[in-house]
Amino acid sequence: MGRSVAAVPGARRGILLGLGAYLSWGLFPLYWPLLKPASAPEILAHRIFWSFAFVLVLLLIRRRWSWIRALRSDRRRLTLLLIASVAIAINWGVYIYGVNSNQVVETSLGYFINPLVTVTLGVVVLKERLRRGQWIAVGLAAVAVTELTLAYGRPPWLALVLAASFATYGFAKKTVAMPAVESMAVETAILGLPAIAFLAVIEGHGTAAFARAAPHVTILLALAGVVTALPLLMFSAAAPRIPLSTIGLLQYVTPIMQFLLGVTVFHESMPLSQWVGFGLVWAALAVFSLDSLRAGQPVRTITASHSRTSASFAGQSGSGPSTDRASSA
């Protein structure tokens, strides 16, 4: 028998922190449009640059640098962090583009189907065997994507790229098992030079919105790093305190909020055919969640294994143990 959520030390605080993180990510569709007239690539570049600046300040405050020596000689972790960096850059860029081009509902679909894409990735890459409930959920999701392809008149590319890129990011992050601040510092450092180069080019051409648009746009662009990092840090503090099954249920808060914002605030159309497609996705997630809750022991095993790996790296680097499963948005 596993422990209930209430029996986990600090569970209430963990749930509040996790909920705060997912609520923050759910509100992102309201933030990125405020940065117009900045283009999606410029917003992405600023998000990367200011995120790196923010986590660098955190590292300076904490004065923890010994982990760099351990990482420098670990080619496997560096490769995984490179993969994670590319995946999250694609995810962030596509998400910003989707929101600012009035496709919030489709971006929410990406995060709805992400758990199902993740288990599919486990089958393809890790040769894992799915339980019957997982096969049913994946099958329903495949039918849903087919239905939505017919509804949109094209495959839901935004949703599929968002789900695939974040599944890849999550796989790399789970495997590398590093504390959140340190791993985010490496990822944004890898992406930092291309981001700075891009910002320099558009600044030289006089097409950058930063410092040229309204003052609030400049301020909000600079705050993109804080907006990105704070939910991640809340989530990283929450993850060790609550079971993975609870995290699995909380993760749906973000796409539900995004979907509701798309329909009610941005007034995106939802014809019956799209409702049918989303209904199939939600049915798949219901089956998937029930199956995950029933299979509590494997979930706890995954959590314990990941925590041991994180603690092992933390022991080498001088950092405290941390679980690092982030949402992207």
Show the helix and strand layout.
Layout: H1 11-26, H2 28-31, H3 40-62, H4 66-72, H5 75-100, H6 104-126, H7 132-152, H8 157-176, H9 180-204, H10 215-222, H11 224-238, H12 244-250, H13 253-265, H14 272-294, H15 296-317
Helix pairs in contact: 1-11, 1-13, 3-5, 3-9, 3-11, 4-15, 5-8, 5-9, 6-7, 6-8, 6-13, 6-14, 7-14
Structural summary, described in words:
- This protein is mainly alpha-helical and 329 residues long.
- It has one domain.
- Helices cover 77% and strands 0% of the residues.
- The chain has 15 helices and no strands.
- The longest helix is centred in the N-terminal third of the chain and has 26 residues, at 75-100.
- It is globular, with a radius of gyration of 20 Å.
- The two termini are 35 Å apart.
- Residues 297-325 have low confidence and may be disordered.
